[in-house]
Amino acid sequence: MPELPEVETLCRQLQKKIAGKKIAAAEVYDSKLAHVRNIKKRTIVAVRRSGKTIEIILDDGHSVLIHLRMTGRLLWQAEADKPIHSRWHISLDKGDLYLVDPRRFATIEVLPTQASPTGNDILHDFDWQAFIAKHGKRRTKVKNLIMDQKAVTGIGNIYACEILHAAGVHPEKMAVTLTNKDWQKIFGKAQQILKKAIDKRGTSISDWRDLYGLKGENQFELKAYGREGRPCVKCGSKIVRIKQGGRSTFYCPICQQ
Ligand SMILES: [Zn+2]
After folding, report:
1. Which end of the chain is more exposed for a tag (fewer CB within 10 A), N or C?
2. Is 104 a catalytic residue?
3. Which residues surround ligand 1, an ion (CB under 5 A)?
4. What pLDDT sits at residue 86?
5. 89-94, long-range: CB < 8 A, 24+ apart
């Protein structure tokens, strides 16, 4: 499932490729998206990210909101070849943008444009002191809390493992036991790790491909996620895997206590 760095990568690539362009044609191929309004003849003003939603802002006061969910992909095709599993597409000058999605969970909505993305986005408007005031006393495991999109938007499973490893915090520690210093470290590392992942165009472990169908390169940077039984890069002891809330958590039992 694409996380923040992958969605941000797409938004940046889309901004460069389609902002300022006029939509020559729009087509829906999947009956599950039959409600999506035809946006032919609109011009794309800009593309931005709101949490994990891609927002294509149009010149008529509306935005196209795309959430990729499990297997959704946005793919740019310079030639007019419709890829397999296409569910929606727009034609622009010198190319086409397709939503490709074998499992058909991705959603598209066309809604009035909001003033600006709101919320606790870890890379935009996150206030870690307000976070501590609101959530610091909770008896919730730290990994579950930093993945709670209502508390802080933008940290998914892969990056949560990486962030806690970098910060040296055990994923099962209760939020209430952490100090201000711990939180500051966690959110400092979060911003560092997510920014680096954006520079590397995301993590391609399974499905993720960018706008041009290329893999990201952040999978080569992972220090904890997917490294069960392999030596910790900091201390050499073996990375272990546990289950938390149905998801795999990877951590170092020596560095993260
Ligand atoms: Zn270690």
Report:
1. C
2. no
3. 232, 234-235, 252, 254-255
4. 97
5. 89/26, 89/27, 89/29, 90/23, 90/25, 90/26, 90/27, 90/39, 91/23, 91/24, 91/25, 91/26, 92/18, 92/21, 92/22, 92/23, 92/24, 92/44, 93/21, 93/22, 93/24
